[in-house]
Amino acid sequence: MPILCEASARPDAHYQFLAGGLSGFLEIVCFHPLDVVKARMQIQGTTPVRGEVIYRGPLDAIAKIYRHEGLTSFWKGIVPPICVETPKRGAKFLMYELLKPYFYFGAPQATPLTHAMAGSLAGTLESFIVNPFEVVKVTQQANREKPLKTLSVVKYIIKHDGYGIEGLYRGITALVARNAVFHFGFFGFYNAIKDWVPISQDSASELLRKVSIAGFASSLACVMTVTLDMAKCRIQGPQPVKGEVKYRWTIDTIRTTFREEGARALFRGLGPMVMKSGPGGALLLVSYEYLYDFFKTKNF
């Protein structure tokens, strides 16, 4: 999630790119364990597969993952997002800034709809960059045995499934839908709420205001997209029966999940998703602004 800024990104693109990448790295390292918990909860069905443990909730999942797999298992699949995070943050932020002028719709200045539309399109374009990394990450996170090496997973997927919609780009429609909706909600909510809440003259209070709004906006966006995220994880992760593709397309995955597991399953993983994205969005905001100001002041 890039940070909202009214100034043009182009003059200081290198500062924004570097600050966004480093803040994204910090967010991943701190909150990746919750991403592992979310993925495990979304992939599992209502009954154990091959004797696998069922997670009854976020805290239960945390306890069981730690008990059966150890502390390091919470960072399974961290290499792919780290590899893509710097270019992803930089590219998305620059796209967002460049796209904003096209969505003023006659208004004299950017409105919440302007930010929502620009953010949504930037998130959509970003999907085509990160999808292969998401497939590898989810595959690693779903594995309950010893950690899988990233390059080994990449080679295996390419060898058996290829580069296309069955391989590194499986789940692309779900990811595009999730990113488009999430960024529309996040940017829209953030800017709308920010305009409603009075600006504080105290620097600490103003920082708290921005952090609170960013966290709240991110949490609302999570609620809007949890079902799409669940579908993405099921399509990109290991299938319930080896050799059979049960989850292939977004709408079909949602229908099948609803029919077999009920409406509650459509919101599986919402707890860890909000726990990760709420504070994660706030952390990203604080670290980005601090790093951006630091780089600009030091004239790197």
UniProtKB/TrEMBL annotation:
SUPFAM superfamilies: Mitochondrial carrier. Gene3D superfamilies: Mitochondrial carrier domain. It is a multi-pass membrane protein. It catalyses: 2-oxoadipate(in) + 2-oxoglutarate(out) = 2-oxoadipate(out) + 2-oxoglutarate(in); L-2-aminoadipate(in) + 2-oxoglutarate(out) = L-2-aminoadipate(out) + 2-oxoglutarate(in); heptanedioate(in) + 2-oxoglutarate(out) = heptanedioate(out) + 2-oxoglutarate(in); 2-oxoheptanedioate(in) + 2-oxoglutarate(out) = 2-oxoheptanedioate(out) + 2-oxoglutarate(in). It is found in: Mitochondrion inner membrane. The keyword Transport applies. Solcar repeats lie at residues 11-102, 110-196, 205-294. InterPro entries: MCP_dom_sf (IPR023395), MCP_transmembrane (IPR018108), Mito_2-oxodicarb_carrier (IPR051752). PROSITE patterns: SOLCAR (PS50920). The keyword Magnesium does not apply. Belongs to the mitochondrial carrier (TC 2.A.29) family. Transports dicarboxylates across the inner membranes of mitochondria by a counter-exchange mechanism. Can transport 2-oxoadipate (2-oxohexanedioate), 2-oxoglutarate, adipate (hexanedioate), glutarate, and to a lesser extent, pimelate (heptanedioate), 2-oxopimelate (2-oxoheptanedioate), 2-aminoadipate (2-aminohexanedioate), oxaloacetate, and citrate. This is Mitochondrial 2-oxodicarboxylate carrier. It comes from Drosophila rhopaloa (Fruit fly). The lineage of its organism: Eukaryota, Metazoa, Ecdysozoa, Arthropoda, Hexapoda. The gene is LOC108040744.
